[in-house]
Amino acid sequence: MSSAAFKSTVSQFVLSNDQVHKIIAGLTSELVEGLSTTDPKNITQQPSYITRLPTGKETGLYLAVDMGGTNLRTAAVHLLGDGQVGVTMEKHEITHQLKTGTGQAMFDWIADCTASLLKSVALDMGNADLQMGVTFSFALHQTAINRGKVLAMGKGFDLSDVMGKDLKDLLEDGFKRKNLPIVVSAIINDTVGTLVSHAYVSPSTKIGVILATGTNAAYIERASEVSKYKGPACDQMILNTEWDAMGKADYLPQTKYDKEIDAVSLVPGFQEFEKMVSGLYMGELVRLALVDLIQQKAVFTFLNGIVPESLKTRLAFKTLFMSTIESDNSSDHSSIDRVFKTSFGIEGLSAQDRADVHELIHTIGKRSAKMTAAACAALLRKANGASVKLDDPKEITTIGIDGSVFEKYPHFSRKMMDELTDILGQDRASRVRLELARDGGCIGAALVAMVSHSGGAV
């Protein structure tokens, strides 16, 4: 039987209905605030300068770069019409050395990766400039469809001489240094890319979500609501919410472990919502809770309260381990033994230890799904009556979701949908679809680059 200390620890990660609705109300308040704020420290609700979604009929060949928290993807994207695309893509890991080095080194490397793609696809358009769309998974102060100043990055990035610089200039300077005739004709956020690309395939898509190393969302808002937007007149605007940076202590149900993660992060007090739900942090929550429970002799009692060195390393317990363990349907959770033996050199777990570890992991994973669903509910309610028609029985609203947590974490989508049903009610929830969106960054960037280059208003 689990100890009282174990039950107390796990209960901190269980959300009540009141807590869920408090999250929705808090996020909604921040969504509204972000529409008008001019505070440079508030990076939420960034206008994308994209005022319509694709029709699915667009055609052409465009380059794309997708810079995320873990990898850089380069792609040649052939838009074929009828919602069809052909993609040649290469993926490159962004090393810690690159993440914490100079901006010039980073953008020279991006140019080298792009040159590698061009060589592999043997793309030669003579003397013509190659048009590129760029997906940038970090906050930008966008000033045009192809220009944006880099804001705080997060996700382990600490580049010198980049903050406040225009991303188009940073990229094109790198291409020039490598003698590549490439023009950046569109810059979008990865979540905007997910929304745009999934709408190309599924026209009912009104919200795009990323749930991977980090998390973010984009949705379609009435332009009249976005008072801080100073661009050309339009009826609607896709907004990059930067919901990762939302979340205040007065409504986020932070445990002491969440607060510890925040305290030792590169930027304490920044991206507090993200630190509670995304792939970079879920495994770390498990590790911190386990360390605490071992010290209390509430689990792994054979260790006599002494935490193994292998478990003391920050981020040592990967969210991938959680996924592996939750995928194991055996009654004795034998995968737990394998994970702890292989990755931490810990052997001798009892049946109760395995049951406790499984319960802890399941509860933390479920909290992430519930909090993400609450954030989606806030967006659905904010957009309801405009781009979203929750009360119209003939209207379906699709949320396109890209990212390893949504795609690979066991039962995550079902847990999200169950929570949305609880929040919205059966009728409204039945008009909402959660769909996996893949490679949204590259395809979305290519779509926006195509429309921008052809002179049409996106």
TrEMBL record:
Its EC number is 2.7.1.-. One of its GO terms (biological process) is glucose metabolic process. InterPro entries: ATPase_NBD (IPR043129), Hexokinase (IPR001312), Hexokinase_C (IPR022673), Hexokinase_N (IPR022672). One of its GO terms (cellular component) is cytosol. Pathway: Carbohydrate degradation; glycolysis; D-glyceraldehyde 3-phosphate and glycerone phosphate from D-glucose: step 1/4; Carbohydrate metabolism; hexose metabolism. Keywords: ATP-binding, Glycolysis, Kinase, Nucleotide-binding, Transferase. It holds the Pfam family Hexokinase_2. Residues 7-200 form the Hexokinase N-terminal domain. Residues 206-451 form the Hexokinase C-terminal domain. GO terms for molecular function: ATP binding; D-glucose binding; fructokinase activity; glucokinase activity. It catalyses: D-fructose + ATP = D-fructose 6-phosphate + ADP + H(+); a D-hexose + ATP = a D-hexose 6-phosphate + ADP + H(+). PROSITE patterns: HEXOKINASE_2. SUPFAM superfamilies: Actin-like ATPase domain. Belongs to the hexokinase family. This is Phosphotransferase. It comes from Podila minutissima. The gene is GLK1_2.
